[in-house]
């Protein structure tokens, strides 16, 4: 190590130099650790986002003293440095390691206060979303309150995003009590918009699975729109989910809405809505099923010549009609 004193920062950014320094950490000599630390602490942000340097920082975080860890936190938590590092493809790994190795409430508070400044940006970012998910996995629910608050407040913006929708589902998983009630309630309140989105529809379906008590609120938001939703690629999946999981009275309301629609003939032959009708035929029985069959019966001639309509004919006694 003496041979590279004064040049430790530069060799930390080299593939072989980085490995050499990591081996010094493995040997566990406190003097070596302190010497490396002193030479890189002022460059820690740059190293965290470096293709090789980030590995050295991750290794350092596993073996450093608490005073050293606190010094690292002071540097990376100044200004918006932590947000920038988290958005970087290499930096995100170093920040995740930093979160994994936090030891005290003070350290956690420094991290969460810094991340809070750009939490929505992080949630929607290819790299940053992994930092948010690591917080959910490693920190306590009270410490993650800032994430749950942001997810609830911005649930449409987040839920209609490729990465955000995944984070939103993880927030549903990790939230508890009042946190979960508020978050799920906000998603349900925006179910009509979310259901029609290529990503948001998965979020609505997810809360129907993971928080079935919210189903009546979701269905209330969709009421009056089921025919329109059934003919869309994404929202048709939500309507099917509601038919499968709704209570008998809610299911009956959906089916009544579909059968009384002026677009019933179109629904039966629609590339998406036909699946909704098939689902309705599958999940109903008795008088409700009979009323659905009777509503479909006048459209049988048209269904026989329709590629999607033929699927309806294969259900129940319609094939023989």
UniProtKB/TrEMBL annotation:
Start and stop residues of the Pumilio repeats: 3-38, 39-74, 75-113, 114-149, 150-185, 186-209, 221-256
CDD domains assigned to the protein according to its UniProt record, in alphabetical order: Pumilio (cd07920)
GO CC terms in record: cytoplasm
Database matches in InterPro entries: ARM-like (IPR011989), ARM-type_fold (IPR016024), PUM-HD (IPR033133), Pumilio_RNA-bd (IPR033712), Pumilio_RNA-bd_rpt (IPR001313)
GO biological process entries: post-transcriptional regulation of gene expression; regulation of translation
Keyword Signal assigned: no
Top-rank lineage group of the source organism: Eukaryota
Annotated PUM-HD domain residues: 1-320
Any one Pfam family match given in the protein's UniProt record, by short name: PUF
UniProt keyword list: Repeat, Translation regulation
An example molecular function term from Gene Ontology annotations: mRNA binding
Function: Sequence-specific RNA-binding protein that regulates translation and mRNA stability by binding the 3'-UTR of target mRNAs.
Protein name: PUM-HD domain-containing protein
């Amino acid at each position: 190590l003496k041979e590279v004193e004064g040049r430790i920062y530069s060799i930390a950014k080299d593939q072989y130099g980085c490995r050499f320094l990591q081996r010094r950490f493995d040997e566990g000599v406190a003097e070596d650790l302190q010497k490396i630390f002193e030479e890189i602490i002022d460059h820690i942000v740059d190293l965290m986002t470096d293709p090789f340097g980030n590995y050295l920082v991750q290794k350092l975080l596993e073996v450093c003293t608490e005073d050293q860890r606190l010094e690292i936190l002071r540097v990376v938590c100044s200004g918006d440095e932590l947000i920038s590092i988290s958005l970087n493809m290499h930096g995100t790994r170093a920040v995740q390691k930093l979160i994994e190795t936090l030891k005290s409430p003070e350290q956690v508070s420094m991290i969460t206060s810094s991340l809070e400044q750009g939490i929505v940006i992080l949630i929607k970012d290819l790299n940053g979303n992994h930092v948010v998910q690591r917080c959910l996995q490693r920190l306590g629910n009270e410490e993650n309150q800032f994430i749950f608050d942001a997810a609830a407040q911005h649930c449409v913006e987040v839920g209609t995003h490729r990465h955000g929708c995944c984070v939103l589902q993880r927030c549903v998983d990790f939230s508890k009590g009042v946190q979960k009630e508020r978050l799920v309630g906000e998603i349900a309140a925006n179910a009509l918009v979310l259901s029609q989105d290529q990503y948001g529809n998965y979020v609505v379906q997810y809360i129907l699975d993971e928080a079935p008590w919210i189903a009546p609120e979701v269905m209330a938001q969709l009421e009056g729109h089921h025919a329109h939703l059934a003919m869309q690629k994404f929202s048709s999946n939500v309507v099917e989910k509601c038919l499968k999981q709704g209570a008998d009275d809610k299911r009956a309301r959906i089916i009544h809405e579909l059968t009384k629609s002026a677009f019933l003939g179109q629904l039966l032959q629609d590339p998406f809505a036909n699946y909704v009708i098939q689902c309705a035929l599958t999940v109903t029985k008795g008088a409700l099923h009979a009323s659905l069959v009777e509503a479909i019966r006048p459209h049988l001639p048209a269904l026989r010549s329709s590629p999607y309509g033929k699927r309806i004919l294969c259900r129940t006694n319609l094939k023989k009609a």
